[in-house]
Write a structure and sequence with these properties.
Shape: globular
Distance between the termini: 24 Å
Strand content: 25-35%
Structural class: alpha+beta
Helix content: 10-25%
Largest sheet: 5 strands, mixed
Order of helices and strands: HHEEEEE
Length: about 90
Amino acid sequence: MSELLEKLSQPLKQILQSELQAGNTIREISSGWPEPQSIFVLLESPFTSEYQITHPIEFREINDRHYWKAEYLDAAYKHLLVCGFEK
């Protein structure tokens, strides 16, 4: 698991570190979806802050309870940092 976190793109890693420091927790880490090189990190709770982002990072509100609330996508690497809904 920590191997995948080490490979996570630097911009997403910075957001993840901020979220963990704010008390959010990781629910799941996986690789290979949606692209073979993808890394997927799901946080337990909604993002605690809005982050200033630049290309190739994209923020999207998904708001689909079958999936997740919001996501940050690193389009260059196809890495995803997503957040769940409040319990």
